[in-house]
């Protein structure tokens, strides 16, 4: 496959490394200096920027002889904290991967683990569910004896995927770390560790600050306070529902706001609806979640067209393309349905709950 090359921006790795020193003098900075500013999707149409930091060493129990591999996109928060800054700050040996887990064959992940003797493996439940459907045979073709820890990130992992990951990939000997955190937290805040205080179902909140927490919403500190600290004064509100079972395990039950988790990426329903209504024939739009066997959730969109316009397959594809171009491939709707009218509240706001009920009944 031909890769586009731009001499102004691209360089050959070997050319750079052959004259590079193995020593790197650290740059001393203040503890409160921001590490990076990252865009994340919010519950309003516009996204926002934020400061954050990182954690790495202790969650993955990293040692100098380990080989670590995180399969996330580097541009995502997991890629920032656990591909770039976390491993580099610890001098970790890391595998960098570009591509998809099923090309050129469905055993691509397992082949790489064997080839580079990966000991700490970190991926998303979506990838696990995708590979599950190909069964155990592609996994058994490779020696995964180097694995010590398996991690998951980005979305809740369902029991079936967890068991397959533990039994088949980890061969019943590798602990599975189901890590809970957010772009805003900068690093892990809940991992499978023993706990002692019972917690009834409710919202996930944190009572104490931690080093990696975001410091502000860039250019709008008032929004930072209102979004994360107003609902429960003094506590950071994650926006997720949470319960703790009788065995002491925490279950993240999903978003309690207008956010959808698609393949481990949070998407704002308002952003998608805005992209749809920017099309000249769309009068109104409502976006809801639909269960998906691989992605966890997918986008089911209802659109009401302007008078005199007709819905068609070509229009649906055109709308999908528009959302993809305006937000990104991860936001491409799986379904777009014509709705002559959308249910509304007394204040004339679109009621997505009614549409969600319609989808679940179907």
TrEMBL record:
Q: Does the keyword ATP-binding apply?
A: yes
- Which of UniProt's keywords are assigned here? ATP-binding, Ligase, Nucleotide-binding
Cite the AMP-binding enzyme C-terminal domain residue spans from the record.
271-348
Domain AMP-dependent synthetase/ligase: start-end pairs: 16-198
- The protein's name in its UniProt record: acetate--CoA ligase
Q: Which GO terms describe its molecular function?
A: acetate-CoA ligase activity; ATP binding
PANTHER family this protein is in?
A: ACETYL-COENZYME A SYNTHETASE
> Aminoacyl-tRNA synthetase as a keyword?
no
């Amino acid at each position: 496959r031909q890769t586009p090359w731009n001499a102004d921006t691209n360089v050959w790795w070997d050319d750079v490394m052959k004259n590079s020193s193995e020593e790197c003098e650290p740059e001393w900075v203040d503890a409160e200096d921001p590490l990076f500013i990252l865009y994340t999707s919010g519950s309003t149409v516009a996204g926002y920027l934020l400061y954050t930091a990182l954690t790495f060493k202790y969650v993955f129990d990293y040692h100098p002889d380990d080989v670590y591999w995180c399969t996330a996109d580097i541009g995502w928060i997991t890629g920032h904290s656990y591909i770039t800054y976390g491993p580099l700050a610890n001098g970790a040996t890391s595998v960098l991967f570009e591509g998809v887990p099923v090309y050129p064959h469905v055993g691509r992940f397992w082949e790489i683990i064997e080839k580079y003797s990966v000991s700490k493996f970190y991926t998303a439940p979506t990838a696990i569910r995708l590979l599950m459907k190909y069964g155990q045979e592609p996994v058994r073709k490779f020696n995964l004896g180097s694995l010590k820890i398996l991690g998951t990130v980005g979305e809740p992992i369902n029991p079936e995927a967890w068991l397959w990951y533990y039994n088949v990939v980890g061969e019943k000997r590798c602990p599975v770390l189901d890590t809970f955190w957010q772009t805003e937290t900068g690093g892990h805040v809940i991992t499978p560790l023993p706990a002692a205080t019972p917690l009834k179902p409710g919202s996930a909140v944190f009572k104490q600050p931690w080093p990696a927490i975001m410091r502000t919403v860039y250019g709008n500190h008032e929004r930072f306070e209102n979004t994360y600290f107003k609902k429960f004064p003094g506590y950071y509100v994650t926006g997720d529902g949470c319960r703790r079972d009788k065995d002491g395990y925490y279950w993240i039950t999903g978003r309690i706001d207008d956010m959808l988790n698609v393949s481990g990426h949070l998407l704002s329903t308002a952003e998608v609806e805005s992209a749809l209504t920017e099309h000249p024939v769309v009068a109104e739009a409502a976006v809801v979640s639909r269960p998906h066997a691989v992605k966890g959730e997918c986008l089911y969109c209802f659109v009401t067209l302007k008078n005199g316009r007709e819905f068609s397959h070509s229009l649906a594809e055109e709308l999908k393309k528009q959302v993809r171009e305006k937000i990104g491939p991860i936001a491409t709707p799986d379904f777009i349905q014509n709705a002559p009218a959308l249910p509304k509240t007394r204040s004339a706001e679109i009621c997505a709950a009614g549409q969600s009920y319609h989808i679940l009944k179907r």
